Structure formats: C-alpha cells, structure tokens
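User: Thanks for the earlier help. One more: Spore coat protein U/FanG domain-containing protein. Can you show the sequence and predicted structure together?

Assistant: Of course, both are below.
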Amino acid sequence: MKPRMIRILLAVALLGGVLQTPSAWAGSRCGPITGQLVSLGQYGSLDIETRHTNVDAPGGLYCNRDGFAIYGQDWIRVRLEDDAGGRLVNQATGDSVRYSIYTFGDWQPLVIGRDLDLTQFKWIGGTADALDVPLFFQTEPTLDSIPAGTYTAAVRLRWFWQICPGTQVAKSCLAWGGWDRSKGLRGLCLTGCSGVLNWGEGEVATLTLRLIVTNQCEMVTPDLNFGSAALVSGFSPTIGSVQVRCSKNASYTVGMSLGSNPDGTQRRMRNGNQYLAYELYKSTSGNDRWGDQGSERRTSDEAEVNPGVLDGRTEQIFNYRGVILPDQPTPPAAVYTDNVQVDVKF
C-alpha cells in the first residue's frame, strides 16, 4: 500500500510474475517442457483476500521454428492431468490459495481429464524461431486471511500436436522432414494436411506455479482536531486512535514521524511563518512520546484494543494523546496544521 498523508495529524506508509523462460528446447522441433516455473506474481496478503490475480504465460509446449517465416494452421490439444487440487499451498503453514487455468484468448477452463482443442491457435511471425503456446493462470479471492510466504502448486499437462516447424502453404508443410507430431498422433496426410485421424498418447509437460504473498496492512487514521482557543494555555489534551489490521501471523511496530515542520525533535503545526508546538504521547494518559525510532515505536502487543491478536482479521487499536505545549508564546490567530506520517514495520 502506498504512503498516504492526512491532515493533522496522521498518515500511513505501508509495506505493501516473472516467468522463468527455459533454455531452448533440445532439438529443432516441438516438445513439452519439464520443470518449468510460472510466476503468478507478488501481492500483499490483503489484496489476495479480495481480488483475482492473473498472468498469461507459456503452458509447457515449446517449439523451435528454425527461423522460417510462419503463417499457417496447426493442430494442438491440451489435457490437464494434475493441478494439485487447484490450490497453491504454503508448505510452511498449510494455508492455500485457489487457482484456475484457462486457455488463452477464449477463457475456456482446463478441467482434469478433459481435452481442450487449441487448433485455432495461429503461429504468426516473421523470423521468430522459438514460440510457446500460452495459457492463462488466475488465482481466486481467499475471502479469509493468509500469512505471507511462498505458495506453490505442481501441474501436469499432456500436450498433443501436429505442427509444421517451417512455412506452411496451402496446408503443405515446407520444412525439411515435414510435419512434427506428438507421440502416437496420426494425421490425415503426409504433405497437404486437413486434420488428425488419431491424437495418440501425447507428451507430458510439468509446471510449478509460484505465488509470492507479502505482509500487508490496512489502517484507519482519523484526523486529530485540537479545536480553538484564545491562548495556548486554553487548549485541552485531545485523544486520537490508530486502527491497524495486518497479515496473519505478522507482528509489527507502528511509528509516528516528526511531522512536516519539526524544530529538531519538536513537532510543530504551521501557518505561514508562524508555528505552534505540540506533542503526541503513547496512550491516553502517559508521557512517553510516540515517535518513529527505536523504543518510541509501539509494537502490535502494545495496542489498547486486541493487543497481539494477529489472526489477519482482527484490528488492533492504538490510542494516543495530543497536547499543545503550554510553555510557548501564543502565536497570531490562524488555523495551524501539520501532517504526521504513520508507518508500519514488520
């Protein structure tokens, strides 16, 4: 979550895929990839609770086209054989995130044991010599809290193909050796081709899906209003609160900055070139300054409400007291403001 500022006195600064492309498939034709890593990206745990995340990535069938110009019809099918129960699992905690796999472009879901025909997939390119058949991977909202960590799933796909690795004109394959076919596939032709007689046994590709979940918080930081008075001695202490909800199992500390107009370590509100000194203290009655360094920070165990409850659903509430320092001259009448940044560290 990006930092955000709110008027006197509080703001928030919160801590909040890359596909590993395999080396070129051995040989000059098509084949499945074993052990391919597909990254579903990196997201905060609270985002994973409520939103879909998705990525399109190669699905394990890789072809080397030998640099020929490409435009033609290929015959391709895929069958999902294992999806780890449709869950990405954090092996350290047992928590999981549901996911689905779809064909790229038409959003047909892959279902275990059912073949999906991708025959309409077109290879279009000038001199590209290494191409993948893409799939679409999507996580589902958890609707519950999960801890930060690495979530993985092992996927096994069986690919069937009849592909021309060179130029295809008038349904004839103009590459040396002709059509490239998966194991057991029998086409209706040797040169000019119009389809598949038997899809055969196909060939297996294995993928590891990986989702990185990071610690994340959400905060509610209402403005603190001291009201008005004729003299600095007329201001009463004002009580404020900070509400925090963070990732499951994530202990944290909360700090408050010196604001936008400090004089050394003294917080000050400002109007033009006039200042009004004030201070923020931990809890509603103590005199311990709430700052952003070392012991001036507050831990998740020190909240006044729900201290140390880190189930990812329950808010912790930190109360504090704001005081306008009485031992200063009364500045000219005006509205004085400051912005304080509240940050969370894990």
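User: Great, one quick takeaway?

Assistant: The radius of gyration is 30 Å.
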